[in-house]
Specification:
Layout (H helix, E strand, L loop, with lengths): L1 H12 L8 H17 L12 H12 L3
């Protein structure tokens, strides 16, 4: 997973991947919090990553590079 994160950061810093707006990123964070609350998952688990979800979410960025 660290390799994928490193590639994502490198592509972002190189300008090949654009970040969403601040508003879009915050909306995504609040959506994740709502989903966690609905599923009874404490917010202290916010940074726990599901590897399959991570790969499927970011795979679209890597297929073109």
């Amino acid at each position: 997973m660290l390799e994928y994160q490193s590639k994502w950061v490198a592509l972002t810093l190189a300008g090949k991947i654009l970040l969403p707006s601040k508003e879009e990123m915050l909306a995504d964070v609040y959506k994740q919090y709502r989903e966690m609350d609905e599923n009874g998952i404490p917010r202290r688990h916010t940074h726990s990553l599901n590897y399959r979800v991570f790969i499927s979410y970011y795979s679209c960025y890597y297929m073109n590079f």
